[in-house]
Specification:
The protein is an alpha+beta fold. It is built from 9 helices and 27 strands. The protein is 25% helix and 39% strand.
Length: 360
C-alpha cells in the first residue's frame, strides 16, 4: 500500500485544493480533512477533480509532514487497496436502518487475515453507532478505527463527507482492504490512575454525556478535592487530569468539555450508572510514545494513519515537546494524523487518546 499526503494552506478553497493535490494523479481512496468553514466547498471540489474515487472526510485539524496544521486542508490518498464506502444515517435515533447496506459492504470487501479495517468519521452519538455495528465487525474479524467531527462553528451542525457530499447526523465509513499486506492497529494512553480507588457514577445522563454525581456527591466537588484544581481552572486541567472509565485493567479516557457551579460535568464521552471512574494523572508519556513507535517498527510499515486529541497536543505544547512529538511519526513512515476531540477504537469511544493504523 502507498499513501499520499497533500497540504493546502491558501485561504481560497480552490487554490488550497490545488495545493493539496499537487502530484496526485489518481487514487483508490481519498480522505479529506478541512476547517469547518471550508469543508463543504473542499469536498465538492475534490469530488469534481477525482470523479468516481471513493472519499470520506470531516472537519478537523491535523499533523502531516512534521507540522501541526490548524487551518489547512489535508488530502490523504491511498493506492494498493480495495475499498467500500457508505453512510450510516440518523445516528441519533435509528442507525440500525443503515445496517443492511453496511453488512452488504462488509461482505463485498471479503476481509482476509488482518488486512481489513473499518475506518469512520462520526458527527456524534458514538456509543449508539458503535453498539449497533460492533457485533457484525467482530464476527467478521474487522477492527474499527476513527474519529468524531471537530471544530464546528457556533450554531452549525457537525458534518461528515461521503464521496464529495455533506451529511449531518451521520457516520461516514470505509472498509479498507490492504492488497499489499496487513493493517495493524495501536492505541496510546498516556495517563495513569491517580485515584486510589474507583469512584462509582450514580447519577448520570448518558444521552447528553452528563455526569452529576460520583460516590453520591457532586462529581466536580470530588474532582476538585482529589486534584486541588480551582473551578475556573477545570477545563485547562483536563490535558493533565482527565477522567477515566475502568475497562478491566485498561482505562478509557474521558475529557470534560464544560462544568457548572452545581458540580455537574459535561463530557466528551458518555458515562453510565455504576461505571467505575478514576481521576487520571499524566504518566511518562515520552517513554510510552517511544515504546509505541518501537512496537510499530517491529513490522514493515509503508504508511501511518492516526487520530489524535487536541488536548494532548496542548499538553505537549505546555511541556515544550510538541515539535518533537509531531516529527516522531516520520521516523516510522509517512504519516497523516487527524486531530480532534473524540477517537474510536473497536467498540469504544474515548477522548485524549492516540489511535493508529499502520499499513504494511
Amino acid at each position: 500500500m502507498k499513501g499520499f499526503v497533500g497540504i493546502g494552506r491558501a485561504d481560497h478553497v480552490e487554490t488550497a485544493i490545488t495545493e493539496a493535490t499537487a502530484g496526485l494523479k489518481k487514487a483508490d481512496f481519498l480522505i479529506l480533512i478541512a476547517p469547518f468553514s471550508k469543508i463543504e466547498a473542499a469536498a465538492a471540489l475534490l469530488g469534481e477533480k477525482y470523479p468516481g474515487t471513493p472519499m470520506i472526510g470531516t472537519s478537523g485539524e491535523g499533523i502531516a509532514k512534521e507540522m501541526r496544521l490548524t487551518q489547512a486542508i489535508i488530502v490523504i490518498g491511498f493506492a494498493g487497496i480495495e475499498v467500500c464506502t457508505g453512510i450510516i444515517e440518523d445516528v441519533r435515533t435509528t442507525p440500525v436502518k443503515s445496517m443492511h447496506t453496511f453488512l452488504a459492504n462488509l461482505q463485498a470487501i471479503e476481509p482476509g487475515d488482518s488486512d481489513t479495517i473499518c475506518l469512520e468519521f462520526m458527527t456524534g452519538c458514538e456509543e449508539r453507532v458503535l453498539s449497533t455495528i460492533h457485533d457484525s465487525l467482530q464476527e467478521a474479524g474487522v477492527p474499527l478505527i476513527g474519529a468524531s467531527a471537530y471544530g464546528v462553528l457556533l450554531g452549525e451542525k457537525h458534518c461528515v463527507i461521503l464521496d464529495g457530499k455533506v451529511h449531518t447526523r451521520s457516520c461516514a465509513y470505509a472498509f479498507i482492504k490492504n492488497k499489499g499486506g496487513k493493517i495493524h492497529l495501536y492505541k496510546e494512553n498516556i495517563y495513569k490512575r491517580q485515584s486510589r480507588r474507583a469512584h462509582f457514577a450514580n447519577l448520570v445522563e448518558p444521552g447528553t454525556k452528563t455526569l452529576f454525581q460520583l460516590d453520591g456527591v457532586p462529581a466536580l466537588e470530588l474532582y476538585q478535592e482529589e486534584t486541588g484544581v480551582q473551578l475556573e481552572d477545570i477545563l485547562s486541567a483536563m490535558p493533565r487530569h482527565p477522567l477515566g472509565r475502568a475497562l478491566g485493567d485498561d482505562t478509557c479516557i474521558i475529557q470534560t468539555m464544560s462544568v457548572d457551579r452545581n458540580g455537574v460535568m459535561f463530557n466528551g464521552k458518555a458515562i453510565y450508572e455504576n461505571d467505575s471512574i478514576y481521576i487520571m494523572d499524566v504518566d511518562d508519556y515520552r517513554q510510552i510514545h517511544e515504546e509505541l513507535l518501537a512496537s510499530i517498527q517491529a513490522s514493515p510499515v509503508s504508511f501511518l494513519l492516526g487520530f489524535d486529541s487536541a488536548n494532548r497536543l496542548r499538553l505537549f505544547a505546555e511541556d515544550d515537546v510538541l515539535t518533537d512529538y509531531v516529527a516522531s511519526f516520520r521516523t516510522v513512515a509517512p504519516a497523516a494524523i487527524f486531530v480532534g476531540d473524540g477517537q474510536q477504537f473497536n467498540n469504544q469511544h474515548m477522548n485524549q487518546t492516540l489511535v493508529l493504523a499502520a499499513f504494511e
